[in-house]
């Protein structure tokens, strides 16, 4: 069980707890970060979770503005990376059971769903070789042919 803290009367699982859970339970997966844009005053980082075959299972994007908060006065790069990790881990399904998304996050998620990428044949084949959790993530992250979705649901007995 991951430790929670109270934020505005809601339980929240901090990124360090999510990261410990990920490292303990998914030691054959990777969590990497890439700086997409860095200016004098801001940074944007993409965090990516991949399985042992290199298949992308989840991503998280974050942007921080230098000086926009107390922590960002000295550590906006580090804060941005931690935020990107937290988003990727949440998108992977870690640490989201007790937290509530804001209205902006819900709106952004809906926009993201409309711009989902199509699952390729090779990604489909890799999904069939993966775990049930990975298959559930693929179903949530990608648009796919009806027969791909049916095969994945049937193989992993996903409801």
Order of helices and strands: EEHEEEHHEHHEH
Total separate domains? 2
Secondary-structure content class: alpha+beta
Helix content: 40-55%
- Major beta sheet, strand line-up: 3-4-5
Strand portion, in percent? 15-25%
Structure summary, number of beta strands: 7
**Rough outline:** globular
Query: Nearest-angstrom radius of gyration?
Result: 17 Å
Termini Cα gap: 25 Å
Give the oligomer, counting copies of the same chain as homo and different chains as hetero.
single chain
Mean pLDDT: 84
The largest β sheet comes out as: 3 strands, antiparallel
Low-confidence stretches: 99-110
The helix count comes to 6
Topology record:
Layout: E1 5-7, E2 10-12, H1 15-25, E3 30-38, E4 42-50, E5 56-65, H2 72-92, H3 103-114, E6 117-118, H4 121-129, H5 132-141, E7 142-143, H6 146-156
Describe this protein with a few key phrases.
single chain, 159 residues, alpha+beta, 2 domains, two-stranded antiparallel ribbon
């Amino acid at each position: 069980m991951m430790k929670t803290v109270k934020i505005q009367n809601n339980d929240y699982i901090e990124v360090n707890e999510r990261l410990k859970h990920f490292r303990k339970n998914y030691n054959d997966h990777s969590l990497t970060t890439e700086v997409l844009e860095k200016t004098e005053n801001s940074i944007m980082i993409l965090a990516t979770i991949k399985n042992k075959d290199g298949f992308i299972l989840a991503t998280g994007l974050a942007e921080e503005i230098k000086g926009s908060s107390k922590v960002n006065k000295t550590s906006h790069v580090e804060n941005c990376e931690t935020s990107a990790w937290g988003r990727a881990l949440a998108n992977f399904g870690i640490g989201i059971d007790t937290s509530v998304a804001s209205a902006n996050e819900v709106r952004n998620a809906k926009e993201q769903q409309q711009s989902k990428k199509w699952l390729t044949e090779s990604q489909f084949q890799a999904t069939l070789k993966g775990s049930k959790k990975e298959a559930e993530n693929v179903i949530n992250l990608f648009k796919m042919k009806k027969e791909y979705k049916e095969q994945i649901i049937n193989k992993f007995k996903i409801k």
